[in-house]
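Dear Dr. H.,

I hope your travels went smoothly. While you were away I took the liberty of generating a structure for the chain from your last submission, since the lab meeting agenda had it listed for discussion. I wanted you to have the full record in hand beforehand rather than looking at slides cold. The sequence, exactly as received, is reproduced here:
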Amino acid sequence: MSSIANALDKDLGNITINIEEKMLENVVITAEKPGLQLGIDRKVFNVDKNIVSVGGTAVDVMRNVPSLNVDIDGNVSLRNNTPQIFVDGRPTTMDLDQIPSDAIESVEIITNPSAKFDASGGTAGILNIILKKNRKIGYNGSLRANIDSRAKVGFGGDINLRQNKVNASISVNYNQRQSKSYGTTDRLTFGTSPNISLNQKDTSNFNGNFTFLRAGLDYFITNRSTISGNFSIGGGKFDPYSSNTLVTDTLSSPVSSFKTIRLSNSTREFNRTGASLGFKHNFPKAGRELTADVNYRTRTGPSDNLISTYNYNNDLITINNIYNQRQIGDGKSKEITIQSDFVNPITDKSKMEFGVRAEFDEDVNYNGFYDVDGITGQTNPNPTSYTDYTSKNRVLAAYTTYSNQINNFGYQLGLRAESSNYQGDLKTTNEKFNIDYAISLFPSVFLSQKLKGDQELQINYTRRINRPNFWQLTPFIDSSDILNPRIGNPALQPEFTNSMELSYQKIFKNKDNFLASIYYKNTNNLITTFQEPQTGSNGKEQILTRYINANSSYVTGLELTMRNNITKWWELTSNFNLFTSKITIDDPSVIPQDQFASWFTKINNTFKATKNLSFQLSGSYQSKTILPPGGSGSSGGGRGGGMFGQTSSAQGYVKPVYYVDAAIRYNFMKENRASLSLNMSDIFRTRISNTHSESATFYQDVYRRRDPQILRLNFSWRFGKFDASLFKRKNNKQQGDPNGGMDMGGMGQ
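The corresponding predicted structure, in token form, is as follows:
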């Protein structure tokens, strides 16, 4: 009987259905996605309801996503670690502040990725940004514009067209930005004779703009097969200006004081491009599918910086000398990823998945310093110092998973294998590096048990890797910030992280949702930073930041997330995270960090005053916190610590901070197609960065404030017609349109 049943399973191909058209009166269907959808393996944050980020960037979106912390430079941390950034399920070269918030549909927070995902990322999870796309038959789109309190404007639009076998879309955004920041650094160095006290005041201001364009095309070859292509380009130009005033006192008798003012005028550009081609085939058997895609991404970032250093006499008033210097930098990278996945259901409740992936990266970086004549302004063509580095990275991977459901108990077992190779060529010193990372195995186990009353319990385990990047490996002092130089370490080893998580979820009758998670992450060979004093080329004491492999670290915590419909007009999302972390380093010169518990909470209120008027009030508080293991670098998509001095995760902590954002939106016109919103970030001017670090030879406190109380006015207008017969030929029935003007399936998405 089984053989007979299988023989009857046939693909009948396209089936033509003639539609008898009837004109109906107006039908209005109203449905809203909740601001947050909670799942055991991920949280989905829908951006449409997040009006405080309208007109901003992905950084503004992340500030209101539960489980995430965002510092004033836009660096994102997930459970006190830097996550991997994905766009539409694939890693990206775009920084978060280069993706407009208006282009984002939702954000997926995957705290413990399975073997199906890239094993890179180490101690943190994945943020998957889903960009807006639409496959409704007909045409639709939107136009938008905004202006902020610094008179900077932005505008954009998108349009989507679906006709028979073709779905095409295009989206474009342009934004102007002005950013201002202020900071101070106080450092006491007592490992020298005499001891040295330094006070540094920093101000910066940059003006610039960036554009973002994305185009996509889906072609439905048959009702089961689809080929898709996407192209994106992002670019911008900024003109940063910064001023640094340093006063150094030698704590001897008598006290000697030195004053230096450093002015920097820069021009920086960035260009990002990406293209992808994908294929998907759905087999006749439900759930069986094959996908394959190729992704290509490039990045360039030329910069030109004129630096003037004024050295004062001991009276701190008259100038002793002026030193002019020009810094020219450029960076280029390209990345190619090839991936294929196959899903094969065995029964209605079990399935196997297989996949292969190959990634090839290449980076070229140049950074040179040139003397500039103070009278003629001519630049000496011969650099005083420079770095010229080329690196190539290759990662090959394959995975398989098996999942099954037995009554109310489900499980998924997965195994991923990855190998990689890193090649570096430091032309400055004629050094070459060729590092082979042997094949490593990354298992994952997910167990779930459904309980009575819409409850579910899950426990999971995964193993991941974090390989050192270009800047961490470069064995050359980077003096792009001459006040805070840093150096890489070609002997760095990759770090491996074992993660466990126990989760409980309860869905209430009114669709309220509660999720509790206990998590533990242990990392061996943790890549972190360490600060130590040294004498610079100018003979003055400075702090050098270098990368090292710590012995190990761990992060453990409890996270609670709730989404409540308090009333019909009030939706409340609250998030609480209690955690602690510790780093172990076998180095007697490193002062052990006192371990303590930290916590942060984030609350997001959405009020629907009337059918057309809504408010949003969101806030966050973070207690005193040990700096994230591995440092708080810009790999989370932000702007980086820059000239203000990055502190080391092994030697410091962040002082408490809180902030509040607010917004109001009014919808109008027919079908609420237009909206006007006003949002304000950091309304109490409390979003700051205040860090402390120390070692056996120094104490340092760094304070910073950036872009408080930005007010932004936004307008948007939606247009379109979702009519199944909009593009049909008048006589399509007579001409035998195989689909009768309607699509019969495609990719099934």
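Two observations you may find useful: The radius of gyration is 28 Å. Helices lie at 2-7, 58-62, 470-473, 732-735.

With kind regards,
E. W.
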